[in-house]
Amino acid sequence: MIILISGNGQSGKTFMAQNLLEKYKVPYLSIDHLKMGIYRSNKNCGFTPLDSNELIGDKLWPIIREIIKTNIENNQNLIIEGCYILPHYIKEFEKSYSEKIISVFLVFSAQYIKENFESKILKHRNVIEDRGELDESDYNITEIIKEHNEYRRRCIEAGFKYFEIDKNYEEEITKVYDYIENQKRIIESNSK
């Protein structure tokens, strides 16, 4: 079983992956770590850490896709999280793989971003990893709303369910954990 967690930056992906690791005892891979490992080992790798999610995703997806397939072929479980898992990539898997993948796409509503940007989104950005100092671009609420709207559009175009946090993160994120648990049960029952 593979659990993929994706969404824009600071949407709680790493926190969710850590919680799932603790609950299911399944390791997780942060694509940010993969990105930085590739970039630091080869500055001519075709991207920089500041490039767009799409450009970096297009470079990393072939590696991530094959990691997923290898884990499924070896009947191993893994959680992979990162903003570089774009919804349309998931359509590349044959059914024998896709039926063992739980995809979670997280977005925030414009209302949630406006009401909680500093008090929750920025405040919790370092809850699992140290993301360094904030710069002024982190405060552009209009741009962040645009990014979440674009990510939502990508999910809809690819035909994938997404989870939108609209009012209360703590309450609404429980629906995501419930979804993962239900999908996990389905995968396990189909494997018997």
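Second entry:
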Amino acid sequence: MRVYVKNDNIRFIIPVPNFLIKFSINFLNKPFIIEKISKENRKYIEMIDFKELYKCIDLIKEHKGLRIVEVKDKNGNEVSITL
């Protein structure tokens, strides 16, 4: 997965390996992380089934090149996430 960030004068790419994504999913499921999230936003985290999400990370490899997110604001800044 790659995160592309483009500003008026700066452009850079952040590569994110799949093992780092898997590690992050396991880490977010820990109780001490959930305690740090505000109560109003905690309901969104509790709706996610992290075990199923963990299984889906390997399936992402089949769709290499798929653009998941593309955001452009009126100032010319762009962020896109591509598999």
